[in-house]
Write a structure and sequence with these properties.
- The protein is mostly helical and about 475 residues long.
- The protein folds into two domains: about 20-205 and about 260-480, MFS general substrate transporter like domains (Growth Hormone, Chain: A, Up-down Bundle), CATH 1.20.1250; about 210-260.
- The chain is about 75% helix and about 0% strand.
- It contains 19 helices and no strands.
- It has helices at about 20-35, 45-50, 55-80, 85-105, 110-120, 125-135, 140-170, 180-195, 210-230, 235-255, 270-300, 305-315, 315-335, 340-355, 365-390, 395-425, 430-440, 440-460, 465-480.
Length: about 475
């Protein structure tokens, strides 16, 4: 895999302030995470202002997450080669400029294009920030706590997005992108002042074939899901996209198995905790992405709430996530991942089950209660994902494993919006106001199933046999040539 974090790739500078470096890295995570969800509450306004279709709205969200997921590992490897602080600053600058461009987009096609640019910039931030954290915190316990904070901020940033978006979209939907500009500029200045430069002793070779296959696979799969309801699921174009995605996946696996420096390290998946963490990340964030997408349309299109009111309705979800995430991170650092993972799956499933019979006149208090329960689950599940992924991994491979977990999160968000959005709108043949609530019922049951899967995987990932598989995988990785 191309994104690596080496245990001794760069010693922290003598005057490095670890907590400040962690805060700076979390600032980048804040804007990248918020932009996966802050646009959701602005979607109805974008639809009216730019004349966008529902599929175009899905692409406004998916274009960002597809590109981000596709390029995360390339961003990490580039930073290992050219310098982490340097690439981090460039990513912050590009993200800031792309955010300004999004706010000025004259049409939906331009907005989607600028969201692609945002995703490319975000891919230079998350994995590189994790590399910086890994090289700043040398003590294993402090490092685990820092990773716990990092995982908590992931959930917090995404939960804050709809609330902040509801406040900002009042004057114009374009304002949701303005918030990134001051944060990005501040992070650039602080990085230049306090974050030391570091590189990997031996950066892995770039894997252009693997990178192209990942992009083709994710883009074709997402396109097939989003456009299927418009073109027909059995149409030649959709079938061609599905075949392309499948062939790309098979080719990627076969190619990576025979490559010395693979983009995706197949040996990692012999570790049950690692494999479980990747699937849990996809499931949890697919649930979260679909949950926000559906509720944004429901609150504004069905119930007729203003963007501000819709954003405020998600405040309970955000508040519960903000409270629970740090607690979950602390529990992970002291008692392990099983409890938070099980609680996370139960909360996600129960919150969605409460909306499985959602109607246009369902009590708003009941809807808000469902948001609270879902927020409890999402706040609990996110911090242990990274820790589960890196469980037992050698220090030189911890960042690689964390990068896969981050990529899995973005893949989950992409699939959640695409799949659950397609399921919910497949039976809508008139106005969203009249049909969306009842048409969304199958989508809520799918999210319930995702919650159940998280519980099962959380239990399976924390057994003695699972820990033994992680130790065996780590031993094999130690025996293989490593960066350091």
């Amino acid at each position: 895999m191309t994104i690596t974090i080496t245990g001794s790739g760069a010693e922290p500078a003598p005057h490095t302030r670890p907590r400040l470096v962690l805060a700076i890295c979390c600032m980048s995570l804040l804007i990248v995470g918020m932009d996966t969800t802050i646009v959701n509450v602005a979607l109805p306004s974008i639809r009216r202002d730019l004349g966008a279709s529902v599929s175009a709205l899905q692409w406004t969200t998916a274009a960002y997450t597809v590109v981000l997921a596709s390029l995360l590992m390339l961003g990490g490897s580039t930073a290992d080669r050219l310098g982490r602080a340097r690439v981090f600053k460039f990513g912050l600058a590009l993200f800031t400029v792309a955010s300004l461009a999004c706010s000025l987009a004259p049409g939906i096609e331009w907005l989607i294009a600028f969201r692609v640019l945002q995703g490319a910039a975000g891919a230079m931030l998350n994995p590189v920030a994790m590399s910086i954290i890994r090289n700043t915190f040398e003590d294993p316990r402090q490092r685990a706590q820092a990773i716990g904070v990092w995982g908590a901020v992931v959930g917090i940033s995404m939960a804050l997005g709809p609330v902040l978006g509801g406040v900002l979209v009042g004057p114009s939907w374009r304002a949701v992108f303005w918030v990134n500009i001051p944060i990005g500029l501040a992070a650039i200045a602080l990085t230049a002042r306090f974050v030391p430069e570091s590189r990997a002793p031996r950066a892995r070779r770039i894997d252009p074939v693997g990178q192209v296959l990942v992009i083709v696979m994710l883009a074709s799969l997402t396109s097939a899901i989003i456009e299927g309801s418009n073109l027909g699921w059995g149409s030649p174009a959709i079938l061609a996209l599905a075949v392309t995605a499948g062939v790309s996946l098979v080719t990627l696996v076969r190619y990576e198995l025979h490559r010395a420096d693979p983009l995706i390290e197949p040996r990692f998946f012999a570790s049950r905790p690692f494999s479980a963490a990747a699937v849990i990340a996809v499931a949890a964030f697919a649930a979260f992405g679909g949950f926000l997408f559906l509720n944004t349309l429901y609150l504004q299109e069905v119930r007729g709430l203003s963007p501000l009111s819709a954003g405020l309705c998600t405040l309970p979800l955000a508040a519960i996530t903000i409270v629970v995430s740090p607690i979950s991170g602390h529990i992970v650092g002291t008692r392990g991942v099983r409890g938070p993972l099980v609680l996370g799956g139960l909360g996600i499933g129960a919150g969605s089950l409460m909306l499985a019979s959602l109607g246009a006149h369902t009590s708003l208090l009941w809807v808000l209660a469902a948001y609270c329960v879902f927020g409890l689950g999402f706040g609990a599940v996110n911090p242990p994902i990274t820790n589960t992924a890196v469980s037992g991994m050698p220090p030189s491979q911890a960042g690689v494993a964390a990068a896969v977990a981050t990529t899995s999160r973005q893949v989950g968000l992409t699939l959640g919006v695409a799949v659950l959005g397609a399921v919910a709108t497949a039976r809508v043949h008139g106005s969203l106001h009249d049909q969306l609530a009842s048409a969304s019922h199958p989508a809520w049951w799918l999210i319930v199933a995702l919650g159940a899967a998280i519980v099962a995987l959380g239990l399976a990932a924390s057994t003695p046999a699972a820990h033994a598989s992680a130790e065996l995988t780590a031993a094999r990785l130690y025996e293989a040539p490593q960066e350091a």
